[in-house]
Specification:
The protein is an alpha/beta fold. 64% of the residues lie in helices and 10% in strands. A hairpin with a 2-residue loop joins β9 and β10. The N terminus is likely disordered.
Length: 606
């Protein structure tokens, strides 16, 4: 859930200061992304921070030399100090350009490095996390950090450089009159506090708007995506989507405008106060010059340090406030990385047996999905023998796909256990266990990548193994299709990128089947991946699947009873339990639920 707005200004500041503890993590991420460049830019910024004081001192010397009354100026000294000021100005400009170059390089490396870290961590999390809307809010905010927090890089660098500038300029002011610097501090602090307060309110509002912004983005995607284009046109949905989008966008803009108006009123008032403090000090200096208490050169130097310190002081407060507020967003990143998977190997972390001998056993397994109370499986007892071909059938919502997800340990049972050759699945190394399972789901992904990559996702280590890839296409009846492409295995698929070739539903499914055949797995599962095929094509796929899974455990799920009759065993699920179990002939002769369902489907073909 997004954080609640602070109950008071005191609480807001407490939250902001607490968030600063996440800054070291951010700086470590920056350092790890480009360590040498980070060290270089820090050194350059510190060096550049000393240049303004040197230039002001050179200007003081120049003005004193040319404003001396009744005498000829010391020309060699004059040219020297002009040369010094020129050199410092040129060095400062060069340092600025090099720092900008370094910052751009670090920003690219940081985005790349953090993006990889987020991808890697997301890959470790449970499937249940991705089915939780609160997690998606955290993930969305975390992903934004790889680009949105680049501003902190520049802010942190400028804060360091401005601090060096302020310290050097403050030394010049304090040497002349310490109280002038005190006046600057007193006049700027209220502005800093006001700006910080409204910046924090901006963070709180932005965080509360996360779900709203995701919804807004969803409507935009629906109105512009290739996948939704057909229905948007056929059903004339564009006006409806535009209305929904405009209404949400209007709500966001109204909230942001109200906060911006309040910030303008209060910030403007305190900015006038800060300006008055600076010009009060300036008047004091002008009076000393008028009374001949200081030289024109000294006035130029002190006034310059005063103006510079005033500007840098306000900028430092602003930068610190910005960094503190952005640190609040770093909490989103930290919270994302604090998400941990619950599905992991026990301390035993066994390797799965090869070959599998006895198979898989469900012992009194019960399961419901997170956030739900209804049991999908209720004390299920089921045995899959190695080398057996088992078809699972039943109405929607009876737990067919759930069984597959539990076998692959995408979830763990809430009660009971699942055994592989007599050992609990939870005792096996998760990734090694999944490497022995090949699954093609009904909602398989159609990757806008090459044919090669679309197949090799089943066993990515074989991406360049053309012989294995072609063999997988032969088994899935996709070989003839691919041979027609100009670039064959390297042909780009989908309509997202230029040169991509789109496929029919059945053609995509043949490629998906090739993924399963490419994987050298001992357990192969088809979870209704042929739903878009006609009955004859589906029967052909299942027939070939049955032939190619000899001596392997093969599980396939289908609503078409005419194609599952080739299985060694058919399991009918109802209400999370086994309603019937047997061969096709046995279940037909029994005249039970399977027989009734089979007759209903068969009647439509008569």
């Amino acid at each position: 859930m997004p954080p609640k707005p602070p109950s008071s200004l005191k609480q807001a500041w407490r939250d902001r200061l607490t968030a600063l503890k996440d800054l070291p993590q951010f700086w470590r991420l920056l350092r790890d992304a480009a360590p040498t460049t980070v060290r270089a830019t820090i050194s350059l910024r510190m060096l550049g921070g000393l240049a303004p004081l040197g230039m002001l001192y050179a200007a003081k010397q120049i003005i004193d030399l040319i404003s001396t009354k009744g005498s000829q100026p010391d020309l060699p000294s004059l040219w020297f100090w002009i040369g010094v000021e020129f050199a410092l100005a040129a060095i400062s400009q060069l340092i600025g350009r090099v720092v900008d170059f370094c910052d751009a390089f670090i920003a690219d490396r940081f985005s790349h490095s953090l993006g990889l870290k987020i991808m890697r961590h997301a890959a470790t999390l449970d499937l249940s996390s991705f089915e939780d809307s609160a997690f998606h809010d955290r993930l969305e905010r975390a992903r934004a950090q790889s680009t949105d927090r680049i501003g902190m890089l520049t802010s942190s660098g400028w804060l360091l450089q401005r601090l060096v500038m302020l310290i050097s300029l403050a030394a010049g002011i304090i040497f002349y009159s310490p109280w002038l610097f005190a006046v600057l501090i007193i006049s700027v602090v209220p502005t800093f506090l006001v700006e910080s307060h409204f910046a924090f309110l901006g963070y709180t509002q932005a965080t509360a708007q996360t779900t709203l912004r995701r919804t807004l983005d969803y409507y935009l995607t629906l109105g512009t995506s290739r996948e939704a284009a057909k229905e948007v046109k056929v059903f004339a949905l564009a006006p409806h989507l535009e209305t929904k989008y405009s209404k949400l966008a209007g709500t966001l803009m109204l909230e942001n405008r109200r906060l911006a108006a309040r910030r303008l009123r209060w910030g403007g008032a305190f900015t006038v106060l800060a300006t008055a403090g600076y010009y009060g000090s300036y008047v004091y200096l002008a009076r000393d010059v008028a009374l001949n208490h200081m030289s024109l050169g000294t006035f130029t130097f002190v006034a310059g340090t005063l103006a510079g310190a005033n500007g840098h002081l306000q900028t430092i407060f602003s930068l610190f406030s910005d960094i503190a507020d952005q640190a609040l967003f770093l909490r989103d990143l930290a919270l994302f990385f604090e998400d941990t998977p619950t599905i992991r190997a026990s301390t035993a972390s066994l390797l799965p047996p090869r070959p599998i001998r006895s198979g898989i056993i469900f012992e009194n397994v019960s399961f419901h999905y997170p956030g739900q109370e209804k049991l999908v499986l209720n004390q299920l007892n089921l045995h899959f023998s190695q080398g057996e071909r088992v078809a699972i059938v039943g109405k929607n919502g009876e737990g067919k796909t759930t069984i597959v997800k539990l076998i692959a340990r995408l979830y763990d049972p809430i009660a009971g256990r699942i055994l592989l050759d007599g050992k609990d699945l939870r005792d096996f190394h998760v990734d090694e266990l999944r490497s022995e399972i090949g699954i093609i789901f009904q909602d398989f992904i159609r990757y806008d990548l090459s044919v090669r990559e679309n197949i090799a996702v089943g066993s990515i280590g074989r991406l360049r193994d053309d012989e294995a890839l072609w063999e997988a296409t032969r088994k899935s009846n996709a070989q003839e299709l691919i041979e027609k492409f100009p670039q064959q295995l390297d042909q780009m698929l989908g309509g997202r990128f230029e040169g991509g070739s789109d496929l029919s539903g059945g053609e995509w499914q043949r490629l998906a089947l090739a993924r399963a055949y490419l994987r050298d797995a001992q357990i192969l599962i088809l979870d209704e991946p042929t739903a878009a095929l006609d009955p004859l094509a589906e029967a052909e796929v299942f027939q070939k699947f049955a032939e190619l899974t000899h001596e392997k455990l093969a599980i396939f799920i289908s609503h078409r009873f005419s194609t599952v009759r080739m299985a060694d065993r058919i399991v009918l699920l109802a209400q999370g339990q086994i309603a019937e179990d047997g061969t096709h002939d046995q279940l037909i002769q029994a005249g039970g639920p399977y027989s009734c369902l089979f007759e209903v489907q068969a009647a439509s073909y008569r």
